[in-house]
Amino acid sequence: MPRAGLTTEALAIAGAELADEVGFEHVTVSALARRFGVSVPSLYSHLRGTEDLHTRIALLALEELADGAAEALAGRAGPDALAALGDTYRDYAREHPGRYAAARHPLDAETAAGSAGVRHAQLARAVLRGYDLAEPDQTHAVRLMGSTFHGFVSLELAGAFSHSEPDAQSSWARILDSLDHTLRSWA
Amino acid sequence: MPRAGLTTEALAIAGAELADEVGFEHVTVSALARRFGVSVPSLYSHLRGTEDLHTRIALLALEELADGAAEALAGRAGPDALAALGDTYRDYAREHPGRYAAARHPLDAETAAGSAGVRHAQLARAVLRGYDLAEPDQTHAVRLMGSTFHGFVSLELAGAFSHSEPDAQSSWARILDSLDHTLRSWA
DNA sequence: ACGATTTGCCTAATACCTTTAGGCAAATGC
DNA sequence: GCATTTGCCTAAAGGTATTAGGCAAATCGT
User: Fold this and answer.
1) What is the mean pLDDT of residues A144-171?
2) How many C-beta atoms surround the C-beta of residue B109 within 10 A?
3) Nearest CA in chain B to A179
4) Rounded Cα–Cα distance for residues B163 and B160 (Å)
5) Residue/partner pairs of B121-127 with CB below 8 Å, 24 or more apart
6) What is the pLDDT confidence band of residue B3, given thresholds at 50, 70 and 90?
7) Which of the nucleotides lies closest to A47 (Cα–C1')?
8) Distance of alpha carbon B128 from its chain centroid, rounded?
9) CA atoms of A123 and A110, how far apart (whole Å)
């Protein structure tokens, strides 16, 4: 028989696609093997197991998200940068719900330290350059931003804003605006 | 043999305890049967299956959370009420991480409509009575509050603030404060 | 080009979780 | 005290995860 050409990287990418189709929690070694038309144990040459697969998808999503954020922030400052960062997360979550869920997968300390999570923190601080905040307020502000973005996006993804007026977009715009005000008048 | 005295309610409660011990995603019909010292199929007289179990734990957690919030809000208004509501969520999540995760379990529209989720929305609006907001701003504000609370709590639970200074508590206080300012000067 | 080595994917086997079907015995009701 | 209901059981089938061990395809040295 011809070989399928599996690699760890290809499995992580296919896993990410699968996550967007069926949800991150339903990404299984079995489903991935089916997708490649190979037997389940074949994947174990490339992956240590389910947890390893999930972690690799998480790392992939974090990278994509950080790349997108970095591009969105280039040449922007202040409220523009704030909205660009928020929109990056929100749009990514809506286009790639499974990958967004993967990005929230808990990583052990060592893995997290080597992940693109670090760049996310740097990008958040880059946005705050437009707001002139000293420590420890800068850290508080990073956490506020992260909480607001992640909170809104995950509630929206869960459908919390679906069947009610006004639409989520208008709340999002209003929230970005109030976040900008908060950061400008942090004192 | 004597009977174990299983009931749907008892299973949901034990499931909630199990969730806090091992994580909501690891709550399984098998583990629950072990906990009661009965065979796995015995639970199927009381539960339709795993999804049903998860849903019942979610409903239980939503009730507890709404009860706690209602009690915390009694006799409070303005910033006090805001902080009381936020603290209710945060404290519950730290004391009962599995149940908090359960409360985030997606429910179908019908189940959600009959759940304590409805009371949560009412309680959020009750807090906003202290801030004099008309629609649609009130809805935007409910969503901002929900996003901020849920975002912070879930990031904290995931350990996002663990190994860095300053501690999560000081950021939380700062965030509640800025949320209060935002709501007071919503225009 | 060809044999030796590496490597990729396979089958077999074990273990656990889920769910359905059907049975016996304990509780309940007359 | 007997009949009915009901609670928990065993049996069985299907899916996922993981390990062990084998064969064949790709790769490499000569």
Assistant:
1) 95
2) 10
3) B182
4) 8
5) B123/B66, B123/B69, B123/B70, B123/B73, B123/B85, B124/B85, B126/B73, B126/B81, B127/B73, B127/B81, B127/B82, B127/B85
6) confident
7) D18
8) 20
9) 21
